[in-house]
Amino acid sequence: MPATNDIVLRPRFKMKLSTNNQSVLKDFEALKANQSEFIVTRLDNHVFIKFPKEKQTFWSPQLHLEIDEIDDNSSVVHGLFGPNPTVWTMFMFFHFIVASLFIAFSIWAYTNWILKESFALQVGLMLLMVVIWIALYFAGSIGKASNVNEMGALNNFMNGVINKRIIPRSS
User: Fold this and answer.
1) Where are the alpha helices (DSSP H) in the chain?
2) Under 8 Å between Cβ of 11 and 2
3) Rounded to the nearest 5°, which phi and psi values hold at 6?
4) Given strand 12-17, what is the order of strands in its sheet?
């Protein structure tokens, strides 16, 4: 599962299948109760695969699949690896706050510059916001790098279902 770009924090992929989307969705649905390694949730043509609570960490990834029909005999899978949506929302909120503060400090610095007053404090705060933004980026990168094995496990599970290597146990 090589990422084409190292900067990507939420890797995406797309694959074309030579099977109907409903049969693939049914395969995932069948595994919902017949295995305990992952939690599989299906909503319409979306499938969410994540680790059980006891195996999850703060940065644990989950896999979101959208399986769309192309025609009666083929479908396309759009996949997205990412952290828990709550973690991702919090992370984006922090980015928004840092960007908003940067803009506010830049307006304050511009105002002081126009008024011919000292604006060193404001420029210093702007630089601090840049440093915080870089720290947030590296925190996300470290979180992603620390869970490469978990992303691989999710990917292997998905490929196993799609390629029918994983057969659900009968009840």
Assistant:
1) 21-31, 85-114, 120-145, 148-162
2) no
3) -70, -15
4) 12-17, 74-83, 61-71, 46-50, 39-43
SS3 state at 104: helix
* Residue pLDDT, tens place only, 128-165: 999 999 999 888 888 777 778 888 888 888 888 888 74
Dmax (CA) for the chain in angstroms is: 78
For 59-91, what is each residue's pLDDT tens digit? 788 999 999 988 888 888 898 888 888 888 898
Beta partners for 50?
Answer: 39, 62
- Residue in the block written with tokens 């840049």: 130
Q: Is 44 left (phi over 0), alpha (psi -120 to 50) or beta?
A: left
- Give every CB contact of residue 22 below 8 A, 6+ residues apart in sequence: 69
Under the banding of pLDDT at 50, 70 and 90, the label for residue 112 is: very high
